[in-house]
Amino acid sequence: MSGTVHNDVSLLLAKRLAEETQGQVLFDLPSRGRYATDASIYQIMPVGVLVPHSESDIATAIAIARDLKVPVLARGGGTSQCGQTTGAALVIDNSKHFRRILHVNAEEGTAVVEPGLVLDHLNARLKTHGLWFPVDVSTSAQATLGGMAGNNSCGSRSIAYGNMVHNVLGASAWLSDGTLAEFGPVSGLSGRAAKVAAFVQGLARQHGAEIAAQWPKVMRRVGGYNLDIFDNQSERPYTADGSVNLAHLLVGAEGTLAYTRSLTLKLAELPRAKVLGVVNFESFHAAMDAAQHIVKLGPTAVELVDRTMIELSLANPAFRPTIETALIGRPAAILLVEFAGAHKAELLPRLKDLADLMGELGLPGSVVQMAEDAPQKNLWEVRKAGLNIMMSLKGDGKPVSFIEDCAVPLQHLAEYTDALTEVFARHGSRGTWYAHASVGTLHVRPILDMRRDGAQKMRAIAEEAAALVRKYKGAYSGEHGDGLCRGEWIEWQFGPAINDAFRAIKHELDAINLFNPGKIIDPPKMDDASLFRFPPPGAPTPYKRIDIKPVLDWSAWDVQADPVTEATTAPGTGGDSTGGLAKAVEMCNNNGHCRKFDAGTMCPSYRVTRDEQHLTRGRANTLRLALSGQLGPDAFTSEAMFETMDLCVGCKGCKRDCPTGVDMAKMKVEFLAHYKGHHGHTLKDRLVAHLPAYSRLASRLPWLLNLRDRLPGAALLTEQWLGLSAKRSLPRWRSDTFWRRPDAALFSSLGATLAAAKADGRAAVLFVDTFNGSFESENAIAAARVLKAAGYTVHTLQKSGGHYCCGRTYLAQGMVDQAKARVSELIEALLPLARAGVAVVGLEPSCLLTLRDEALVMGLGEPAEAVAAQALLFEEFIAREARAGRFAVKLKPAGRAILLHGHCHQKAFGAVSPILDVLKLIPEAKPELIESSCCGMAGSFGYEASHYEVSMQMAEASLLPAVRKAPDAIIVADGTSCRHQIADGAQREALHVARLLESLLTG
Ligand SMILES: Cc1cc2nc3c(=O)[nH]c(=O)nc-3n(C[C@H](O)[C@H](O)[C@H](O)COP(=O)(O)OP(=O)(O)OC[C@H]3O[C@@H](n4cnc5c(N)ncnc54)[C@H](O)[C@@H]3O)c2cc1C
Ligand code: SF4
Ligand code: SF4
To answer: Which of 141, 509, 752, 906 is the most exposed, fewest CB within 10 Å of its CB?
Structure first.
């Protein structure tokens, strides 16, 4: 079952799914587009998407699809790298509702889980039992167990624990004829499963000679079906006692044989202690050669970091101190060798064994021994981040994953990597190597431009790599699966007879070819350009970008990159008809990192909705499809695009957390400018945007404007009239604004400030934003008092008839021209001070940081850069001055615990640790950071009736429960809207850090 699905069938499918299931039925073009890609280079539009609610929804959907002859494609996190999760099928997304742990048997060390459960979430629950599921893939924060089983995924510690196939004990799964079959140990099978087992066993017997001759004898072989369960060929047998488990046939089948309903997993004891030895090598070859000897010491991981990664880490100020702890001189490569066990004391001799071994190999003194946990953890983080930096290369050439997990026996690893490096060089490319040296699977991605000659080079490199794999008797597919990029190599790897046996297996389990057709059996060519996300010229529909004149400056993205040196051309020379906007959007490679729920901000709207649409990736995909004309004319300014961007709170979490730096907050400003340009602004938009302009007048009539929250029914009226939620109180207007009551004695003239800056540098200009100035003037006064008490000369800007503003409220409504007018006025006023080296100190993170972010992409030139270079948040300034030994005030103890909520923009700019540093200046203070994403208020977002529920869900995700749990703590929150959200949701007052410091000043 494959080929084209006609429109009428698709309509009927959607209708029947809507009538017969409770799930979300998504058949519109943008929704389908969001499910057309995984983390590979491919894109195939699905027929439609179902997000099922219940098991019966899945069973019903399979039945309807069977009736209508529409293929079915099961999906978890969609993080596959080979295109196995793309297809012209009904995509069924398990990740929203099928994430329960059904059963844990701690004594036996087993768990039964639903397929949409994410690995990290399972392991978080298992921790209390001292257990974990040890297939520790790098995508553990987003990979689902169903997807991991589908791909036969493998983790960094596979040398100790094996691949997915070694850790699955059973599976309950639907077959395409609707049968629900139980797959497990062959000895206990009955019914349909027993019949399948007998059939596969017969095939294994029949092909015994070919299996023995053709099958790669390495543990890291994930290509094809696991026909060898009846005739084990893996270095590591699939079961400890040599018995056969039929569930292993489904593992690595990429959803082509059955649809997994639940999995039974084998758990492992959580290692209580770990030590790390970092071996430094003068040549890459030596590192590769040493791996075969090191594994004999029984490590749990041997991971490679090559010179490029080392250099990238050294170049990054955040990582440099950590990577330096691992280095002896400037090595060409390092191997991270980990030993794990019950006690640290018993592991320390293993590090000595490693050092001795290296001595015997002629490398004495090459091991850095790390016994403590913190430096080990930091180093693993750097190894991950190095890869992210590599993936953030701008321009059309990108590191492409297609031969990145060939596995070769360890004794040949050095020769293989040398030879492949030569192959890259011959094709004008180069690779950065990393990952699993322990099992002969090194990741390497040559840089290719898939929009131009990438496909030709890809085939040529693949063919030469395959020849090397054959020479060294390795596996062509060793970790990420076959999908579209390696499917055609299955027959090459196993030969025609075994390939026929695979076909027979498929027929036995899925005779109608319902499940994920075109994967494993009858795959297309890897370089079929019609399947590429970026089809090159000459393809049936080459990738094109529409013409757009952006309102922000995206030229930094509009570049080309050299595939060997990675050097990029000058900004604006990349030939992007959208001025770089599309290329910035295309930086999203669909790795799915934004689907995470751990520490960090990205992505709050996904965290509460779990909808692909409300995820950074979903937004980037929708923008990419619109900007390349794939969603029809005017899609960029359509209602569908608006809905996709609507729940983006502009938190800038992705700017920091996305490995490739997709900055959706900025993209939302750009989008809104075009969308509102087309459709016009609402009254509410104008009311929010122009707040800085009318705030002066409003503060003269506070009693009138505050009536909205006092008069019964008034709030409801404003909800109906303006769309502002009646459930929200609004910020309270007051007549004693900062500009009307500045304590003159606190502030110095411009001349005195410039003189102080010249004399001893102890000078600052306090930029008071609309919110602090209008609603919480005490914060600004407090900041000035603290700075004054510490001996600083403080100036503040005065403007007749109003005040200076950064333009934030205009940006939030897409009024970029007006924002530009505001911020350029501010920059002009600040410029003489900034040029004289006076720090520009601000209180509201979103306002001050506008000077360091959006103001730099509005075409304001060097003055904007000069001001940005001096712009610091209050706490950043104090932390900097304290580090320099210049900030000395006497503070008394707070006497209570201090809880800190970081504003999203503070997090995005790494400005949370300075607040902690400043809070630690308070005697006896042990401030604790609340692990929270966005507070949910996000400027005007949470005040809007249409967003109220989502806003509260964001706050309830972690912030408000943490505040409630600490009834006596002082809550510090520097964001105006965060303080409002805390007051609304937990009825607690939160303070700006300036207020807290001021209250603790002595004398
Ligand atoms: C940056 C990055 C790093 C990675 N690192 C690793 C790594 O360290 N190790 C590794 O092995 N892989 C790695 N991968 C690949 C990928 O993340 C893993 O294979 C992961 O396990 C896939 O999980 P998923 O939930 O995203 O699966 P998906 O991509 O959604 O699905 C994977 C396959 O399983 C099938 N499937 C999903 N659910 C079901 C079901 N219920 N029934 C039947 N079939 C189903 C799908 O049809 C598909 O064929 C990496 C990928 C990226 C982008
Ligand atoms: S937006 Fe960033 S984190 Fe999310 S999938 Fe794209 S590249 Fe990955
Ligand atoms: S800005 Fe925030 S809400 Fe918007 S996509 Fe990025 S992380 Fe998600």
So the answer is: 752
